[in-house]
Amino acid sequence: MKIQLTILGADRYSVDGSKGGKIYTLDDNTVMEADKVGRNVIAMKCDYDFIDQLKQHAQLMPALFECEGRMVQGSKKNATFEITAVTPLNKK
Hints:
This protein is mostly beta strands and about 90 residues long. The protein has one helix at about 50-55, and strands spanning about 1-15, 20-30, 35-45, 65-75, 80-90.
């Protein structure tokens, strides 16, 4: 499955044998609520080692990317999109 996302950055963790990573992107919708305004930042799952691959695009961020991924089980048994590959769409 492919989607286009504006990627802001990413990080990873390794705690007590549990490893993973998060890619931070922007929600497409602008929020205008009593306690919120603007665009929300969304964290999407990725593999721990994927962060090493993403580093080659660090100088581009924030930027629009085509992201490949798959649906996996996230926290509380909710479905989440795990990013497995990215391609920059507008190189600087």
